[in-house]
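Hi L.,

As promised, Metallophosphoesterase:
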Amino acid sequence: MTELDRRQFLQLAAFGGAVFSSALPGVARAAADDFYFVQLSDTHWGFEGPENPDAHGTLPKAIAAVNALAEQPDFVIFTGDLTHTTEDGRERRRRLAEFQQQARALKVREVRYIPGEHDAALDQGKAFSEFFGPTHYVFDHRGVHFIVLDNVSDPAAKLGDAQLAWLQADLQGQPRDARIVVFAHRPLFDLYPQWDWATRDGAQALELLQAQTNVVVFYGHIHQENHHMTGAIAHHSAKSLIFPLPAPGSQPKRTPVAWDPSQPYRGLGFREVEAEPDTPRYVLSELPVTRG
């Protein structure tokens, strides 16, 4: 299936859903091969509550939807809150193990993970690292440099001086116009700090990233789409796979949006991100949990 056919399939036939294009400013580098990845976020494995009566079924449905894509993504990334918070360390590991077992059903060559505060804030990422390795790291794929940041293992919602120094050193090794994609769980900018939707020292990370001309950030945490610019950097949050949350500051408290039996899974979903060749441009397709 050609690239154009796949888009038509996604946009017009199979899943529908909004398509958001993020055209980044800056000078194009040498052509990178066309590829795409899938972002899933905030699965909260272990959650129980009326906000999602199908809490154990939603993640498997989303995995089945990814596996049913007409063309498999180059990789899948989960942007945090793989599990729901528990103060019991043994239970936390049990949930992480169950989540990992579920994720093994994905029919892709590569699956990557970052922690959310529900996974990592109570033990500074120790249990997460036992299952998934480092909480912050880099990798390269078809001409794009990917940076995974950890802004959750510190319970104060900070990256910390050591990680900022690590980020600075990594960026110094990149050309100024390198294509860079950053993954984090919390927003790096102050989206709505009253609801913990910020990173306390995120401004320092953005100052480092602003020196680059082609940066885009994908994150989770807020359980809904949000698109925002800080200077030349585009920030895109993803929907959740457990329950949606209200728009920033739209109500007094950050309480989940109630489950609607007439529209099950409303507000939940995952994202396809297509990196186009030749230009630092990304096409975002928001896809539902199920075809129904």
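The longest helix spans residues 89-103.

Thanks again for sending the construct details.

K.
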